[in-house]
Design brief:
Layout: E1 5-10, E2 16-25, E3 28-33, E4 40-46, E5 53-57, E6 60-64, H1 68-78
């Protein structure tokens, strides 16, 4: 299984950090920082205007600079079976 990775921006320093996506929905993205025992899970929620996702990790704010529409398009592209209605 290939882990999906995204880049987040630390707002204080402007540094880009690559993290692994744990789960991804248009209303919430869960990411994992680090590996093994020292990993930290964080939740990113959409901002008020819906143009980015923001969250806090160990007291530092991180931002994923993609809109809700872009994230939903990524989800639809990666797994189109989720959008289809189930047959009876």
């Amino acid at each position: 299984m290939v882990d999906e990775k995204i880049k987040l921006k630390v707002t204080e320093t402007g540094q880009l950090v690559e993290v692994v996506v744990f789960s991804k929905r248009a209303e919430l993205i869960e990411v994992v920082f680090g590996q093994g025992v020292h990993s930290i899970k964080a939740q990113l929620a959409p901002t008020r205007n819906g143009m980015a996702y923001a969250g806090k990790v160990m007291g530092r704010e991180v931002v994923y600079e993609r809109s809700r529409e872009q994230v939903q398009a990524d989800i639809d592209r990666l797994n189109p079976a989720l959008r289809k209605p189930r047959g009876r």
